[in-house]
Amino acid sequence: MTEEAVPVITIDGPGGSGKGTIGARLANELGWEFLDSGALYRLVGLAASKHDVSLDNEEALEKIARELDAQFAVKRVGEEILHYTYLEDEDVGAELRTEAAGAAASKVAVLQKVRAALLQRQRDFRISPGLVCDGRDMGTTVFPDAELKIYLTASAEERAKRRAKQLKNKGLGANLAQILADIKARDERDMNRSASPLVPADDAVVVDTTEMGVIEVEERIRDLVKSRFNL
What we know:
Rossmann fold
């Protein structure tokens, strides 16, 4: 099967909309590859920090992005679907989900040279039998030919509550007011950047998850998948 023939499902949306959770669960259910594209930018930011590279040094960040040693894994543990992210063979999942990592990722993501370096890396995840990927420009830029494009969204207030709960569950500090301010600032940057701004693809199915639980969202996405792929 050629790369172009491998089916792709893209799940885009702002931070805290649930796309990572839903994407991982869907990939596990289908037995497909999984790509958390947002983590790639967080990984670049984290690698920059580990190697003392300034987030203003675009040339150095491009080199980090081009040579980034990153892997993803989705595993079922009991009733849970766990998503693991590795940087240079180290599990860095907890570090990546902090607000500091998210802010660094948003700054890195506006750099055109970094985006260009990571574009092919993302497309390399398109491996048989299929790929589920989540991010901000999967359906618009990275996989414009994807068979199914989904755009998850939710109010900034709801997304802030979810992020705070997620951080607390991981034993990390969570200031709701600051998280909300950070989310709004990140939305502003992501939606107005010149390179691949955060917008739904013209042919994406938009799902507002503000009033929906994970199971309800998952059922909605599953119905879309069944309809599109005749499963």
